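We emphasize that the prediction below concerns an isolated chain of 114 residues; any contacts that depend on oligomerization or on bound cofactors are therefore not represented. The input was used exactly as deposited, without trimming of termini.
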Amino acid sequence: MFKGLGGLGDMAKMMKSAQELQTKMAQMQEDLNSMMVTGESGAGLVKATASAKGELKGLDIDPSIFNSDDKEVVEDLILAAIKDAQAKAAEKAQEEMTRLTESMGLPKDIKLPF
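Result of the prediction step, given as a token string:
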């Protein structure tokens, strides 16, 4: 009969899946803005909070580090805490992406967006 219709049905299914993926990706991007991670340095003397998208949201500095005259050490601790928060943000974003792709039956190592 109509052997070609099976191909059209598969195509429609793929388009629906792509649309669903796009919707879920948009939601995940929105969610990453509200997920927070905290990076630390100096055994917790400096803490940087960032969104899972890597945007710096807050900085908490223990006042004891201001007793030192070593300004460079303080600056290094602040930078280290920010870098730690950014690394954790990237890790969190990757975890969320993996969770999303696996929930849709896509390969774990697929690179999105295309």
